[in-house]
Amino acid sequence: MTANDRLDYFKPQLVVIPCGSRKLGSPARSADIYVGSYHRACRKAADALQPDRLLILSARHGFLDLDDVIEPYDTPHGTAEAVTSQVLLEQATVRDILALDPVVALGGARHISLVRSVWPHIHTPLAGARGMGEQMARLAALREGRDYI
């Protein structure tokens, strides 16, 4: 998807959002453990899209449902300890979510690349953004139901 594609023409079956480096200091539901502003902005935009299902892509754990309880961790995407595309494909197979369509992925390039390895046809409304400021503006527009172009 390019930045010119519109998301108001369909209801996503799945939205995948990134985890975040800022976390609570104790075990918590994945819906609550990530406290950074970027993750929260992605979550609000995802909620506004009203998907059938919302997953968080954790750099350590892979796909997380919002009610999954996890311990705080420090594993950035792209490190040796981080989840791989093969693990994500296995998780999606076990969860029986490979056939979901349409799928929207919110996040940066590494996040999008991993999600695309499972769903090559994903919609990526943040693609082509020129930095964090533009991504945050697009997320706000998605949350508010506005065009972001």
Keywords, please?
149 residues, alpha/beta, globular
Radius of gyration: 14 Å
Strand content: 5-15%
What structural class is derived from the secondary structure elements? alpha/beta
- Counting H and I runs of at least 4 residues, what is the number of helices? 5
Main β sheet profile: 4 strands, mixed
* Helical content class: 25-40%
Strand line-up in the sheet with most strands: 4-3-1-6
Strand runs, count: 6
Write down the secondary-structure element order: EEHHEEEHEHH
Task: Characterise this structure.
The chain is of the alpha/beta class and 149 residues long. It has five helices and six strands, in the order E-E-H-H-E-E-E-H-E-H-H. Helices cover 34% and strands 14% of the residues. The strands form two sheets. The chain has a four-stranded mixed β-sheet with strand order 4-3-1-6, sandwiched between helices. The protein has a two-stranded antiparallel sheet with strand order 2-5. The model has no long low-confidence stretch (mean pLDDT 92).
